[in-house]
Amino acid sequence: MFLADSRLENRESVAAELDEVKPTHVLNAAGVTGRPNVDWCEDNKAATVRANVVGTLNLSDLCSLRGVHCTVFATGCIFEYDAEHPLGGGAEKGFTEEDSANFFASWYDRIVNIPNSMTVLHELLPASLVIAEKKLSGIINFCNPGVISHNEMLDLYVKHIDPTYTYTNFTVDEQAKILKAGRSNNELNCQKLVDAVGSECEINEIHAACEKVFIRMKENLTADGTFPDNLFKRK
Ligand SMILES: NC(=O)c1ccc[n+]([C@@H]2O[C@H](COP(=O)([O-])OP(=O)(O)OC[C@H]3O[C@@H](n4cnc5c(N)ncnc54)[C@H](OP(=O)(O)O)[C@@H]3O)[C@@H](O)[C@H]2O)c1
């Protein structure tokens, strides 16, 4: 496994790195996400497009020219619950890979505080290796089955990490006042992923998967309640 150095928008640099490393597969999870949050992208559209659109196309094209399988981790925030895909409708009414985008309220987006599909990387990154090894192509909804709300996540945090933690809720209207753009909320149907991976990886329903996230987080905490310095460092 090799961690790339190139910036996606620097086509020559990406090409040179591909030719030097000669990978069999590329997994691209790079992208401008904005700091302090995704609203940054609303004010910096050119820089965001340069990395996330031009850069992703650069890398995909350069991989295609070399016959290298390229996996792009993108976003499900192009969908919003609607009459055909209602909140609480379950996986069979979730958005599939064939559905067209129906959420355009933000130019760039991120989800908050309503039941949504979510990806537990600890379980799904191994699944992405299976997909790459099988050289599957096309769009694959990359999330755990089911939906989970922000409150349910915080409740798991309270249960496993900090029983003294408290929070108060935002209404959607109150939230809208502090955001530059609306946020997308949806359930993605991930049956295609589950079928593709089969028994090669464990993919749990999202509540069970998140419970395991917090159990691992608790185990990784040091005795004084802080994370070890090297927990998120590159190996
Ligand atoms: N996290 C989620 O729940 C989620 C959900 C849906 C979609 N996504 C998408 O997945 C991607 C990654 O998300 P994340 O949460 O992992 O974001 P993140 O924590 O902000 O990480 C983004 C990574 O991309 C790198 N990067 C940014 N611009 C780059 C460029 N021009 N060339 C090469 N590398 C670049 C950053 O490196 P530097 O720090 O060096 O710039 C950083 O390592 C984004 O496109 C995001 O929209 C994430």
Give an overview in words.
This protein has 235 residues and is mainly alpha-helical. It folds into 2 domains: 1-74, no CATH class; 89-235, NAD(P)-binding Rossmann-like Domain (Rossmann fold, 3-Layer(aba) Sandwich). The protein has 8 helices and 2 strands. The protein has a two-stranded parallel ribbon. α1 runs parallel beside α3 (45-66) and α5 runs parallel beside α8 (206-220). The chain is globular, with a radius of gyration of 19 Å. Mean pLDDT is 88; it is low at 231-235. Bound molecules: NADP nicotinamide-adenine-dinucleotide phosphate. NADP nicotinamide-adenine-dinucleotide phosphate is lined by residues 7-9, 29-33, 51-52, 55, 73, 75.
- Low-confidence parts: 231-235
Q: So what's the overall shape?
A: globular
Q: Kindly report the name of the CATH homologous superfamily of the largest domain.
A: NAD(P)-binding Rossmann-like Domain
Rounded to the nearest angstrom, the radius of gyration is: 19 Å
Query: What number of structural domains do the residues give?
Result: 2
* Order of strands, widest sheet: 1-2
This entry's quaternary arrangement is single chain
Quickly name the level 1 CATH class of the largest domain.
Alpha Beta
Strand proportion, as a percent range, falls in under 5%
Q: Which structural class is indicated by helix and strand composition?
A: mainly alpha
- Total strand segments: 2
Order of helices and strands: HEHHEHHHHH
In angstroms, what separates the terminal alpha carbons? 10 Å
Helical proportion, percent range: 25-40%
Organism: Tetraparma gracilis
Domain RmlD-like substrate binding: 8-84
Protein name: RmlD-like substrate binding domain-containing protein
